[in-house]
Amino acid sequence: MLTKEYISELKSRGNGDIAALINMQKDVGSITYILENLGQLPDNFHADFLYTLLSHNHAQVRLNAVKNIAKLNGKGDIKPLLSLYPKESDTSVRREIVSAIGRQRKCANKPLLYAFLNDEDPKIVCQAIRGLLVFENDKDVEDHLKPLVNHQNEMVRTVIYKEYFAKEKSVKSVLPHAETYEFLKNVIVNADVLEALKYVPDESVHLTFTSPPYYNARDYSIYPSYQAYLEFLDKVFQETHRITKEGRFLIVNTSPIIIPRVSRAHSSKRYPIPFDLHPYLVKNGWEFIDDIVWLKPEYSVKNRVGGFHQHRKPLGYKPNTVTEYLMVYRKQTEKLLDWNIRSYDKKTVEESKVADGYETTNVWKIDPCFDKVHSAIFPVELCKRVIQYYSYKGDLVFDPFGGSGTVGRTAKALDRLFFLTEQEPKYFEYMKSKQKEQGVFKERATKFYTLNEFKNVIR
Asked: N or C: which end of the chain has fewer CB within 10 A?
């Protein structure tokens, strides 16, 4: 019976027993299992059988043979790999061949890696780049790599830009990364968001979670055209990008919207808001991370399929819309997530860890909420997940369209801080009324400002 322990024992003997074991196998699965469990190879390892396996008719076997040749501490013979490369049809094997050559870290291999930079497969180009970057301060390598900043593939461009052209910001945030300004903590401003954000400093916010007003679907969201609506949101999220700390997240909850038809002689119009908004966001420096689908029960949504249910005629099918999107973006940065996490003390990191029972898929089944004052409010559970998954305790959570204040109340309940803007006076007053309720906006008093009051506080 093949076991990892048995494979390890044979490998340690270094006398060709592994080769004999593989020759005994009749199926690809067993050969693959052995190759995948060889681990680190000793100096006295007999590797001739690996080169024989390069001609195996199964791509997975060839792939694992190449991977193990790469483990031979630079002593592997790359000539068979170079011979295989032009004939190899499997892209994974080809990429692994380039990786194996790069891992040898030999100056003699540089011309080979230069040649791979011209491959049509961007992942092969990236593997070659990785192999060349080990030669630090090598002008010849730099001369070959720097021009790739104009490569047609965005992945290649990003790697080269980070290595050779990215610079530290000339103006760094005034505050430590984990902190924010006192005048923004648990504040609600009754003003147009674009006016309010003029007075918010750069890199103040850790997380933004919002649901923009739907295009011409409510009395408070009337725009002269769909393009004007998108351009307004573009401005809002440009400003949000400015005030967001490096590498932190924006989550936008939206969905396609239907504008009813004018009469039976006309058709209704459906606008794909999340898909049309996306290009504006990525253009302005937001990196797309995930799409989360909020799934609602069918009884809670408008019945669109009723007409089709009666006639069942093709072309007339309109399904009941039971989903909305949570589009997850991150402010572009050359730094990894670990840099953000290290900005917090150990106690905060430990206390902010998400408890067992968290959602493991990108489909979140959550019932919607209904309110007499606001017709489109967030469910608390939706807010809770976003805030827990994308922020730390003490972080500042921003909602540019504050509505009924669910983001603020949930943030406070989770030991976060909040900053909300809300243009509609009736929703602002509604949030004020919640201040009086037991257990809502407690401990740190929430501050409610007009735009002028907010300006004066900052001064």
From this structure: N
- Give the tokens for residue 33: 């299992």
First to last CA, the chain: 76
**pLDDT for position 12:** 84
Write down how long the chain is. 459
- Alpha-carbon distance of 309 to 316, in angstroms, equals 10
Least confident of 66-70, 80-84, 170-174, 291-295: 170-174
What's the one-letter identity of residue 53? L
Query: Which residue type is seen at 456?
Result: N
pLDDT beyond 80 at 220 = no
Domains and CATH numbers, the chain: 4-165 (1.25.10.10), 182-458 (3.40.50.150)
The whole-angstrom separation of Cα 117 and Cα 144 is 9
Q: What percent of the chain has pLDDT over 90?
A: 71
Q: Which two tokens stand for residue 277?
A: 């908004």
Residue 395 CA to residue 400 CA, distance in Å, equals 16
Question: DSSP of 163-200, one letter per residue?
Answer: III----SS--SS-TT---GGGTTEEEES-HHHHHTTS
Mean pLDDT value across residues 392-413: 95
* CA atoms of 434 and 432, how far apart (whole Å): 5
- List, in sequence order, every residue forming a beta bridge with 187; answer none if it has no partner: 419, 447
CA 389 to chain centre: 12
Write the CB contacts of 104 (distance below 8 Å, at least 6 apart in sequence): 70, 74, 76, 78
Q: Which range, 6-10, 153-157, 269-273, 343-347, is most confident?
A: 343-347
Tens digits of residue pLDDT in 20-51: 999 999 899 999 999 999 999 888 888 899 99
Strands 323-331, 286-295: pairing is antiparallel
Q: Which residues of 277-305 are buried (b: 16+ CB within 10 A; e: fewer)?
A: bbebbeebbbbeeeebebebeeeeeeeee
30 burial level (CB within 10 Å; 0-12, 13-18, 19+) = middle
Angle, vertex CA 229, rays to CA 227 and CA 230, nearest 5: 65
Copy the structure tokens of residue 330: 């991150």
- Those residues whose C-beta lies under 8 Å from the C-beta of residue 456, and which sit 6 or more positions away, are none
SS3 readout for 97-113 = HHHHHHHCCCHHHHHHH
Alpha-carbon distance 378 to 407, whole Å?
8
Task: Give residue for tokens 């300006």.
Answer: 455
- State residue 446's pLDDT score: 92
Q: Average of pLDDT values for 255-276?
A: 79
